[in-house]
Write a structure and sequence with these properties.
- With about 80 residues, the protein is of the alpha+beta class.
- The chain has three helices and four strands; from the N terminus they run E-H-E-H-E-E-H.
- Strands 2-1-3-4 form a four-stranded mixed beta sheet, covered by helices on one side.
- Strand 3 and strand 4 form a beta hairpin.
- The chain is globular, with a radius of gyration of 12 Å.
- The model has no long low-confidence stretch (mean pLDDT about 95).
C-alpha cells in the first residue's frame, strides 16, 4: 500500500499530483504552505532550488512533480 506525503503551495502542479495520487488509490497526507510550514522551512528541508510540489512515498523522498511521474512510470503505476 502506497503512503504519500505532499508538500504543496496550491499551484496547478500540486493539484495535478493530488488528482494522480487519488486516482492511484493510495493514502496521502498533505502539508500546505502558510498553514503547516513556511517557505523557509521548505527550503531548509528540500533545498534552495526545490520546486512545489515535493512528494515522499513510503517515507522515501521522491521529489518534484516530474520526478514523481517518472517514479510512477518506472514502477508500473502509470
Amino acid at each position: 500500500m502506497m503512503q504519500a506525503v505532499l508538500y504543496t503551495d496550491g499551484s496547478q502542479e500540486c493539484e495535478r499530483i493530488r488528482m494522480l495520487l487519488k486516482s492511484l488509490g493510495g493514502e496521502y497526507h498533505e502539508y500546505n504552505l502558510g498553514v503547516d510550514f513556511t517557505d523557509k522551512q521548505f527550503r531548509m528541508e528540500f533545498g534552495e532550488d526545490a520546486s512545489y510540489p515535493q512528494i515522499t512515498i513510503n517515507h522515501k523522498h521522491i521529489g518534484s512533480l516530474k520526478e514523481t511521474l517518472q517514479y510512477f512510470k518506472n514502477n508500473g503505476k502509470i
